[in-house]
Amino acid sequence: MLEERCDVVVVGLGAMGAATLYQLAKAGAKAVGIDRYAPPHDQGSSHGDTRITRLAVGEGAAYVPLVRRSQQIWRELEARDGDALFEQCGVLVMTSGATHTSHHGAADFTLSTIELARTYGIAHEVLTAEQLRARFPQFAPLRDDTIAYYEPEGGFVRPERCIAAQLKAARELGADVIAGVTVSAVESMGNVVRVRAGDRTVVADKVVVCAGMWSAELLGEPFKSLLKVCRQQLFWFKLEEPMIFPEVSPSFILSHGPLDTDFCYGFPPIPGEGSMKIATEQYMALSEPDSLDRTVSDADVAAMFRTHVAGKIAGVTAERVKARVCTYTVTPDYGFIIDEHPALKNVTAVSACSGHGFKHSAAIGEAVAQRCLSGKSQIDLSAFSLSRFS
C-alpha cells in the first residue's frame, strides 16, 4: 500500500472541498484533495449550471460576511483565469400570499431578508406588486398583495465552473488531486490522521471532511444522528416565443402560499438556451446516498409546472428541456456545521450545506484553511459549531 505525507487532506471536492483545497494551496500548505468521482461532477450537491447568490441572507446574520467575501473571491478567480463565474443580474425575494412562508428556519423569509439588508446597509429596494409587474413582466400573474425585495448586487454563480477554477488553481499552486477514489476510513492516530483511499494511505497533520451526503458514513456520530439526505429535483422549462423576459432579469425566490412547501426559486434565461431553470425544495422524503433515484419522471415535471409555475411565472411553457437530481445534506436547524470532530482529533467537518451553501463556499474554504493552518479564521464561524445541538 502506498503511503504519503502532507499537511492537510481534504475529503470531497465539491463546493466546500474545492474552495478549501484552493485556499490551502494558496497559503503554501502541502495539500491533497480526494473525491470518489472526477469533480466537477453531477453525483452530489454541487451541480446544475447556476446557484443563487445574495448578500442579505434570510437564513441569518452569520452568513452575511461569508457571502460578501465569497463574491470577492469569485471575482479574484475570474481575474486569474478569465472565465465568467459570477453573474450580477440581481435577486428578487418575493412573498405572494395571505400568509408569509417560513423557509430554512426563518419565520418570514422575505421580511427577514429585508431586515438584514437594512441592518447591514445592503443596497436594495422593496417593491410592491405593481412595481414588480412593471419592471419584471414575467411575474405579472402574482397577487396584488405581493411584497418583493430586490438586491441589485446579487445574482448567480456557476457551480461547475467555480469548482473547476478552484481545482485548477489549487493544482497550479502545488496541491495534489486524487479523483475517482473512495475514502474508506479517516483514522486519528496521535497527532496525525490517516486517510485510507483505495490502495493509498495519506498521512496528514489535519483532515477536512467536505463529503456532503457521504459525510455521516465517514464521520460516524454525532453526524449520523444529525444529518439527513434529501433528494431534490431541478427543472428547465422551455420559454414561449417571443420571450417576454427583460434583457436583464434577476434570479428569484418565490413564496406563494402558507406552507413551507409553497416555495420555489429560479434563474433568468441563459442566452442561447431558450429555457428557464426553476426548482423547489423538499425535506420530508429521505434518501440513502448509494440508492439515490436520479430519474425525473414526466409526472414530476407536470406537477412542478402545475404547482409552482402556472399562474405565477409568465412566458414559460410546460415543456421539459432537461431535468436533474441533486441532494441536500441537512441539519435539524438548516444551518451549517463547521467544527472539529468531537472524537477524531485534528479532523474538521464542513457539512452540511442544508441547501444554501454554494453562495458561501468560497469564503468558507478560506476560513477553514486559515483555521487549519493558524488555529483561527478571519470570519467568525462560531455560529456553525456542533455545540448548538447539545
TrEMBL record:
Protein keywords: FAD, Flavoprotein, Oxidoreductase
Domain FAD dependent oxidoreductase: 7-371
GO molecular function list: flavin adenine dinucleotide binding; sarcosine oxidase activity
Presence of the UniProt keyword Translocase in the record: no
Source organism, top-level taxon: Bacteria
Matches recorded under InterPro entries: FAD-dep_OxRdtase, FAD/NAD-bd_sf, MTOX
Cofactor(s), by name: FAD
NCBIfam families, A to Z: PRK11259.1 (NF008425)
Protein name: Sarcosine oxidase, monomeric form
